[in-house]
Amino acid sequence: MAVTIEDLYRNYGVLADAKDNLSQHKDAYQVILAGVKGGPKEKRLAAQFIPKFFNNFPELADAAINAQLDLCEDEDVSIRRQAIKELPRFATGENIFRVADILTQLLQTDDTAEFNQVNAALISIFKMDAKGTLGGLFSQILQGEDIVRERAIKFLSTKLKTLPEDIMTKEVEEYVFAETKKVLEDVTGEEFVLLMRVVSGLRVLQTVNGRQQLVELVVEQADLDQALNPADPDAVDRLLQCTRQALPLFSKNVHSTRFVTYFCEHVLPNLSTLTSPVAELDIQLEVLKLLAEMSPYCGDMEKLEANLTMLFTKLLEYMPLPPEEVENGENSASEEPKLQFSYVECLLFSFHQLGKKLPDFLLDKVDGERLKDFKIRLQYFARGLQVYIRQLRVALQGKTGDALKTEENKIKVVALKITNNINILIKDLFHNPPSFKSTVTLSWKPVQKAEAVAAKRLSTEEMGSGASTKKQIAPLPRRDARQIYNPPSGKYSSSIGNFNYEQRGGFRGGRGRGFGARGNRSRGRIY
Fold first, then answer.
1. Is the pTM of this model over 0.85?
2. Count H helices, E strands: the chain?
3. Reduced to 3 states, what is the DSSP secondary structure of residue 478?
4. What's the pLDDT at 2?
5. Four-point Cα dihedral 132, 138, 144, 147, nearest 10
6. How many CA atoms lie within 13 A of 278 on its CB side?
7. pLDDT class for 278, splitting at 50, 70, 90?
8. Residue 127 phi, psi dihedral angles, 5° rounding
9. Name one GO cellular component term (predicted).
């Protein structure tokens, strides 16, 4: 016989009046449990009554949790929300893990209000037992369905940082780090970014040793022991994302040596053949920017001379010789070389940073003819720079405030930063012996708020008909200002300058594809 509303209220009254003798009225509680088999009204009442007396009948704990779980899966969303709202009341003692596990599974709902209810319930039980709650979350991340795993990781990445220190204790944070390392054995690119966000925010890791541990995590994911396949966009993307996650961790005490060495040995030799993981991405400029950002934090290198030689060789490729002159002293009719300022800024900065470690490199390690050739290229590049710098300064003279915020002037400001940086670095190299003392701030790195530039990528139409599809600058052209300064604009777009990989949906494919199996490690999901 089905339980009615009257039955539920009558038995609720029995239990409410029993006070200290509740355990003697097990039959009354069983009637309330049976309410989950009734109609909508009975179910809504049962969802409220079951947790109220849950702690008084430990022998019926499993039956009570299962009954509430039935309501959490009801077809009526209002019943589900009521049942979920009450779930934290079951989170006592050994039940905390099970309740957290159930709530984590419920994150897969597509109903916004219900999803928010689940989030609120999880936060509620976090305040009761953070470690137990994390146990349920990580259990589903490691073993649950993909949609549950994805949402559980996002929950951790957004909610943990909002919890106070009295909940996220040292012990709890160490548990998060230990469990996250297990998850990182098999992740997609997007999961990797989110999990690094989780562990990077842990207070227990805000020490030199902690940051070094985080770098080691990234090194393992980046697979720096394996040669890079430049034709594999997944491999290239993995390296870019891992490097970008490691960048904020580097300092004078936490070195970037492993990454800088890998870039010099495996990336630079394959620069022209790298396959971009994103169609609109200038992959060559992307990796050169990363190398430049890492180079100040490079420690002692085993193969410093070889790596400097590779940087020097690559720099020569982007610094053309001046065009040949005919007998009357005029340039030949051949096309003038292209000056690729953005590439040269990155390479010259990286060479300058590593050159500090071997200041006699150009004099002792480069033969006389090659050094003479290099200086000719430097002089030609410097002449082109001077013209652009003068034109840029004239174009920007007297402009302040809103006038500097137009797209065209933002581009000119960045172009002026690049050309000034290169000019300073070239002057250092012209010293005899070459000097490595000057300090510059990379053009895409903000110096102060007023100079921050976030130029949007301009289309070819916006850039004007004179724009180069290869984003190159022709030196010394007598063109109007717009044609002069628009070509480099594509190199300073927000998507490149800020390495905004998270917005690209992580690595190609889901688990079962991305990071790839390493060594002999056995995995449930081979990425």
1. no
2. 22, 0
3. coil
4. 82
5. 110
6. 21
7. confident
8. -70, -20
9. nucleus
Residue 108 has a CB neighbour count (10 Å cut-off) of 18
Contact in structure between 183 and 221 (CB atoms under 8 Å): no
Least Cα distance to 161 among 132, 211, 126, 113 occurs for 126
The residue whose two tokens read 């009254």 is 13
Residue 368's Cβ-count burial label (10 Å; 0-12, 13-18, 19+) is exposed
Three-class DSSP category at 163: coil
The C-alpha torsion from 78 through 79 and 81 to 84, rounded to 10°, is 180
Residue 331: phi, psi to the nearest 5?
-65, 150
CB contact at 8 A, 263 and 294? yes
∠ Cα 234 237 240 (to 5°): 155
Beta carbons of 435 and 418 less than 8 angstroms apart: no
Helices (H), 127-254: 130-143, 146-159, 170-183, 189-200, 208-222, 233-246
Angle between helices 26-34 and 40-52 (to 10 degrees): 140
Q: By the 8 A CB rule, do 156 and 201 touch?
A: no
Contact 251, 210 (CB under 8 A): no
Residue appearing with tokens 């052209």: 477
Q: Which two tokens stand for residue 154?
A: 């996002």
Which tokens sit at 105?
């599974």
DSSP 504: G
**With the C-alpha atoms ordered 405, 409, 411, 417, is the resulting torsion angle positive or negative?**
negative
Radius of gyration of the chain (CA): 31
Q: What is the pLDDT of residues 37-60, one digit of tens each?
A: 999 999 999 999 999 999 999 999
> Sign of torsion, CA 429 381 481 408?
negative
